[in-house]
Amino acid sequence: MLLRILGLGDATKAELRASAWTAAMFCACLASTFLLRPVRDQFGVDQGVEQMPKLYGITLLMTCLFAPAFWRLADRMPSRRFVPIALHCLAASMLVVFAGLWLVGSYDWKSDASRAVGEGFWGFYSAFNLAVPTLVWVHAVLNFDRRQALRLFGLIGVGGTAGAVLGSLGAGLVAQTGILPAWSAIGSLVLLECACLCHAFSAKACAAMRTERGDTAPRDPVTRGGILAGLSALLHSGYLRSIAGYMMLLAMTASAFAFFRTRMLAEQVDGGRAQHGWLAHQEFLSQSLVLLLQVFLSSRLLRRLPSALFLSASPLLSAVGLCVVWQWPSVATLAAVMIILRGLQFALEKPSREALYTPLDLLTKHKAKFLLDTVALRFGDWVGACGQVWIAREWGNSVDAAMVAAVAVALLWACFGARIGSTAR
């Protein structure tokens, strides 16, 4: 029944096994990130909008430090080996996160030591939040060709969204039951180890799927070219530069929403635990909507409609959403807008964006994609945060000026989406 709903009745057993185990891996990975996300976001609310450029600068720095380590692993071993190694390392890092958050206690970010822990956690989580799902998609785009991606990535996305729902539900329970936020890190550790186990089963299933389709490529290919290979590929490819521009504008729009969320939550929701609960509840509803759309619509729409439609519709709807929040500035309005936008983005825009990489060569998939998914995205976050705070200062803390700028960025993002969608290979 589920396969018919997802439009996968014609999938072979090998394809279903490979996509199901990859979906399970994605489920565990996203659950680990969404369990920690509200803790990170609550720290940002506590610090206020004036600190956003600094926090996003820390994010960019952490990402730039992390990316070369990933590339070095990609140079030395195939993804079949470095993906689980990276997941094990990230799981081990949760012990450090637990120790830091334990020292902070219950949302007490006021002391210098607690603020330092919060800033370190903010930067680490931002890199962690990009790295973990990127490892899943690196594994996926390596093993699925474009035809299979358009048919099966929807199922993989369903697995990830189920993990996001579970992680957000767990985060909400942490806020409601009075458990210290530090225990969220132990939950993430367990989930990352589960993701490693799922990856092992997925790798075997993907090998069988490649054999079934007659793929004669090496079983464990390795990329070469040094840690700057991704940058070189970006500089020599107009297609990749367009994707980079798209990713930066996406991040700038997201930072605008974060700016208004931080401002409104600080003004309208009192208390760290209450803010933690609000953030977790909003993510739970957002990802639940994503799950419904993925199960009943995503696969059919992705196969029948052009990518340009989804890559441009999400930015246009973001511009509309910003205007709605502009007219009715409340946390209830903001929550409703973000739930709808996240639902559409993760159910339709994200799979369309990932499919852009499937026809590219191995080096591009491993290195240029990771460069775009990490450094380009986080640079866009930082530029967007700096821009929002600068506009607010120059225009007397005016929300109107910040909103106009955010809408303009979203419209430019829509133009990039239409362009790369129409030229997709």
How confident is the prediction overall: mean pLDDT?
83
* Number of contiguous helices: 14
Question: Rounded to an integer, what's the Rg over CA atoms?
Answer: 20 Å
Ends distance: 33 Å
Structural class: mainly alpha
CATH class: Mainly Alpha
CATH topology: Growth Hormone, Chain: A
Q: Give a short account of the largest sheet.
A: none
Shape call: globular
Q: What share of the residues does DSSP label as strand, in percent?
A: under 5%
Summarize this entry quickly.
By secondary structure, this protein is an all-alpha fold.
Structural commentary:
Helix 2 runs antiparallel to helix 7, helix 6 runs antiparallel to helix 12 (331-355) and helix 8 packs across helix 13. The chain is mostly helical and 425 residues long. The chain has a single domain (11-422), classed as MFS general substrate transporter like domains (Growth Hormone, Chain: A, Up-down Bundle). The model has no long low-confidence stretch (mean pLDDT 83). It has 14 helices and no strands.
Topology summary:
Layout: H1 2-5, H2 13-47, H3 52-76, H4 79-104, H5 112-143, H6 146-177, H7 183-212, H8 229-235, H9 238-268, H10 272-304, H11 307-327, H12 331-355, H13 362-394, H14 399-422
Helix pairs in contact: 2-5, 2-6, 2-7, 2-9, 2-10, 3-5, 3-13, 4-5, 4-7, 5-13, 6-10, 6-12, 8-13, 9-13, 9-14, 10-12, 11-12, 11-14, 13-14
